[in-house]
Amino acid sequence: MTTELAVLDMAGTTVADDGLVVRAFTAAIASAGVSEEDSRYPGMLKYVKDTMGQSKITVFRAMLGDEAKAVAANEEFQRAYEKLVADGECAPIPGAEDVIRGLRESGVKVALTTGFAPATQRAILDALGWHDLADLVLAPGEGVRGRPYPDLVLTAAMRLEIGDVRNIAVAGDTPVDVHTGLRAGASIVAGVLTGAGKRGEFLEAGATHVLDSIRDLPDLLNPA
């Protein structure tokens, strides 16, 4: 198989998370009237961790059961996360930039995807200077559903004119990344152990491979 496209997750896979999602969630849920001392907080935090990788507005809708509250919480999440990024608490996973550049130099197109809103994704790209690093960046919205739907992968394939979904590799740090890749028909769907997911969770989700780091992806795509 010749890999034409690598679809790579951002936070936890190519970008270090270091607890930023949890911190932003805590601020967001506080805006909905749930403090860390509230009896509901532990269960909500567990749900956020269990749904890592999914579109955040979808997570807040499921959690709060009220559209207005979900939208407000999602907007506060974006503000809190973007402030953390602006304050310098955002860094690439070691070796990620080299991997992306190396893949593109070898003829593999690269798309960076996320469960964050487009504005949050742009804030990360701004902070890291990554706007020209990949061939394409995508976030949920404007007719593109978030994970675990296959839309992010398939939209990347269409926009980058990939001829066969079997020539796509997907890598991410959560089981939901794996579900997305499999639903899109990618031949390589790798779980990456630098973020939220564990090896057993990836295998249970059906991952074709489990990688210690995104740095291991080139060897998987181009075995000696």
Automatic annotation (TrEMBL):
InterPro entries assigned: HAD-like_hydrolase_sf (IPR050155), HAD-like_sf (IPR036412), HAD_sf (IPR023214), PhnX-like (IPR022468)
Gene3D superfamilies: HAD superfamily/HAD-like
Pfam families given in the database record: Hydrolase
Name the record gives this protein: Phosphonatase-like hydrolase
